[in-house]
Amino acid sequence: MIAGCRLTNLIVFAAAIAAAYTAVGDDVLLKNKTVLHGRVDKDDATLRQISDGLKRIVIRDSKIEKITPGAVHPNPELFGIVQPIEVHAGSMPTAAIGVTASPWNEKGRRQFSYFGPRSRTPIAMTQAIIAIAPHIVRYRGIDGFWVGQVSTTQVPKSVIMGILGKIDRKQLNERQRIARFLLQAEWYAEAKTEVESIARDFPMERDRSNELLKSIQDLDARKQLMELSVLRRAQRPTELLTRLRSFPSENVAPDVLSDAREQLRKEEDLAAADRRLGESLRAVEGQLSSTVAKQWSKSIAEMLRELEKAPDAVRSRLDGFAKADPKASPENKLALALSGWIVGSEGATTNLSDASALWKARQMVVDYLRADDDSKRTELLNELQALEFSKTATKVDGKIDLDTLSKLVVLMPPALRDTGATEAGKPVTHRVGNDSNDVPTEYMVYLPPDYHPLRYYPTVVAIHDGRGPASAIEWWKTEAARRGYIVIAPEYLLAGQPRDYQFSDSEHAAIELSLRDARKRYSIDSDRVFLGGQVVGGTIALDFGFGHPDLFAGIVSISGQPAKYVYAYRKHAERLPLYIVTGELAPAAKEAVFDGFARQMISEALDVTFVEYFRRGLEDLPEEAPAAFEWMDKRKRDATPRTFDAYSARPSDARFYGVVIQELGEGRAIAPEAADALGKNIHPAKLTVRTSAPSNLLNITTNGVERLDVWISPKLIDFKRKLEVRINNRAFYKGPAKSDPAALLTDLRFRGDRQQLYWMKVSTSR
């Protein structure tokens, strides 16, 4: 017997883990092209659950494109481990909260504790791994009863390799089983090492091992090919090109090698085209008069620098320049480059004076957004509106129009960016600027590799579980770095405040102010911002997300509990995708989280996914991170819906797609401490908004709202036609749609959202 644990082929252990894997027999293709593997069962007439032995996923049948029943999957290699057991009988608790666990040690053991339904002190035990499979590790308590499982990814590879390394190295069959295990786990480097070792130790297996090595190389190449698509989505072109150039060619299937080489050809063609583009710009610079060249040297240097650093983000801006008539003058060509750089190639002009005005406009906008003084902003706004442009169809008065200004805003770098640049992989703490709260709001930011301010990045607002922003960053950062996401972690707790969530305006303000501040500093894709959290953070994610549905493309709640306002705002899920994850042993996981909350929304065909981990308690479930990001990758916010309903019962829950509640009616707001846990005594105000494109009508019906403001987007109405804003069947505004630079810049300075721009404001407060 090996000290502490012993490998065995005991049927009882193998059968136990195999039972979980025999369920893996169906492939499920969702309509958004996500693929799930597991046994598909009907939960009711419309719900489907897919179970893989580790967890079950519940979705609406209408989300499924195709089910392939009985899909062939290799039988997993299973290794049972004998661990000395002191307690052989007992029963699992009905609920487990306050779960804590130490890392697994080299013997496959860890210290574990939890609180049961009625325990006042933690129940502690030593847990030990009793079976290992490529995707699931089973464990049980040694000195207390517990039987459970985790994803193999949650056990350090060194621990598993150490345990597997204790088998009798003279047993060929066992060595081959290890090799198969490593292949099934997709640990190809380790599999290659093991197969090479088998060939050395067992010469008669050399030929078979060599064939297997070829298969391993092919499988590894296929995995690398899939990772290339992740790199491309993560906006890492330099790393992508490096990986393609070093892509393996030996023992790789022709279709895989052909795909990789075609990708390499395209990337190298793009790189060559970018170099030629830069050379063309330098050539034009060399043809300019000394006066013009001196005037534009810094701007040309900026374009060349960014074309080298982030060609994928900026090359399209220079399309007009690249396609310029070869006979055009150097000044005309330069104007195309300069103007396209500021407003995009569609707005490019050969007029150098107009290009100059655009560069001045960009600087004025940046200065406006940075200015703290009202008089300075007024001065800058007047200067912006006084800029002279040539008269065209879009600038009939020779002044900058809001369409041009909007394009400028979208393409400019973040106004408050730190030119020193935060390093990727090193979280930094920011204090929100101009925060009027008694205790200034702080948040942490984690940037993905190769972050560049001219690229837009999907973002996770990560809500911590009471242990501080660094703990939230830690949960999300690995997969965020891999997939190219920014992570923002607000500090919502005040010093001395309990770790429990209070559902307060102060907590909401901290989260919202952090996001607004981060949007001004970093290049955040506001249409792909997600809200996520674990345990307490998961509860906050549900509450804050439902209170502010227009901010997010979706919510990821890990072990969160719906409560209070969430029930009153349930209809917001019509526009707010939800990814809800819980443990089977979390308190009221079935009654409150699934039956009382998720089931109805899934049945209504809303974009809601429910995930339940078997034999897991109220814990942060870190193995779910890759699946959560896969879910987020498929979703995007609709920033300007034409129709929506919205609800509010707190002053903090006031902004809905441009409609801002300034005052709730009597009896509509209820303090968090007075609100029923299931929302039964919450009677929110309601907004119903309908936009009619043919009649250019914005129709708003309210119930329980005294005053509101309406911010109007050019994506909703035609600013070349007359506009009507009707509130409760009264024509509150009827006349020309007046595009207002002050409205656009005031809102942009306040919220920092460069993808949800408003050209006009109608207020009922006047």
Can you put this structure into words, describing what you see?
- The chain has 766 residues and is α+β, with helices and mostly antiparallel strands.
- Among the domains are: 270-411, no CATH class; 428-637, Rossmann fold (3-Layer(aba) Sandwich), CATH 3.40.50.1820; 655-763, no CATH class.
- The protein has 21 helices and 29 strands.
- Strands 6-2-3-4-5-20-19-18-17-15-16-14-13 form a 13-stranded mixed beta sheet, sandwiched between helices. Strands 1, 7, 8, 9, 10, 11 and 12 form a seven-stranded antiparallel beta sheet that branches. A five-stranded mixed beta sheet has the order 21-24-25-27-28, with no helix packed on it.
Rg over CA atoms, rounded to whole Å, is: 30 Å
Beta-strand percentage range: 15-25%
User: What separation lies between the terminal Cα atoms?
Assistant: 84 Å
Give the C-level CATH assignment of one domain.
Alpha Beta
Give the CATH superfamily of one domain. Answer: Alpha/Beta hydrolase fold, catalytic domain
Topology:
Elements: E1 6-8, H1 11-21, E2 26-30, E3 35-42, E4 47-51, E5 55-60, E6 64-68, E7 79-82, E8 97-101, E9 109-115, E10 123-132, E11 136-141, E12 147-151, H2 157-164, H3 172-184, H4 188-201, H5 206-233, H6 237-245, H7 254-287, H8 290-309, H9 311-314, H10 319-322, H11 330-343, H12 352-370, H13 374-386, H14 402-411, E13 428-431, E14 442-446, E15 457-463, H15 469-483, E16 486-490, H16 505-521, E17 524-534, H17 536-547, E18 554-558, H18 565-568, E19 578-583, H19 589-603, E20 608-613, H20 625-633, E21 643-648, E22 655-656, E23 659-664, E24 685-692, E25 697-703, E26 705-712, E27 722-727, E28 730-736, H21 741-751, E29 760-763
Parallel strand pairs: 15-16, 15-17, 17-18, 18-19, 19-20, 25-27
Antiparallel strand pairs: 1-7, 2-3, 2-6, 3-4, 4-5, 5-20, 7-10, 8-9, 9-10, 10-11, 11-12, 13-14, 14-16, 21-24, 22-23, 23-26, 24-25, 26-29, 27-28
Helix pairs in contact: 3-4, 4-5, 5-7, 6-7, 7-8, 7-11, 11-12, 12-13, 12-21
